[in-house]
Amino acid sequence: MDILEHETQPLEKWRDGVMTLMRVSALTRSAQLCIFEQFCDPGLGAPIHIHAVEEVLEVMEGEAEVFLREESRIVRPNQSVLIPAGARHGFRNTGTGILKVRATLAAPIFEASYDDRDELSRRYVP
User: Given this model, what pLDDT does residue 120 score?
Assistant: First the structure.
């Protein structure tokens, strides 16, 4: 049995005002899941993007506006959104403090393609 020490895992800057803690992925020998947390400054989050796999986005602290396809909703702590594979989505911090979200993807490797061509496509692999 492997015990993952999340306190020793590094925070990674994904974009200005957005830090990421990759908890579980292919890097930790996961075969089917990618779980990470993001810490977003007010007004910031994840631009519109897609994944090839299903995702659950859960708000842990703060308040987020989550965009899914043509709809947007405010999501608060202990609420989550199920994002179907291939669905355009994103989120932003609508609060005044740091937004903490946890994302779980149904793949051990994080991959995303963004609508904004200035945003780099991201692939988190070992």
Answer: 62
